[in-house]
Amino acid sequence: MEVYRRDLLYLVQSGSIMHMTSTSNGTSPAAIFARLWETKNGRLPRTLARTVLKLGFSEQDKSRMHELAQKNAAGRISRDEIQELDNYISAGDFLALLQSKARRSLRKARVGPTHHG
Questions:
Q1: What is the mean predicted confidence (pLDDT) over 44-73?
Q2: Of 51, 52, 59, 115, which is most buried, counting CB atoms within 10 Å of its CB?
């Protein structure tokens, strides 16, 4: 988990909270949960996709993540704070995965089906 914490510190300091991990294999809890929202064609409904793209961490949460990332980088983080940081990372992973699905769903909807013949 040390790599995740370093990545989170970079992302918090750069202003980007989106944290991507290897969820593309579809076996992570986030990937499994994200599939619950899909329609039969594997896309998110358009209204849901647009709403998901508007989601993000509050300023209070961003501030807390930054604080935790700094403590971790300095080696002054408690066990409870490590768990809290890991929870933020998990939430960020889920949000990133769901927003990726939302973007793909909206992009596919714009392009529409292709017919070969």
A1: 95
A2: 52
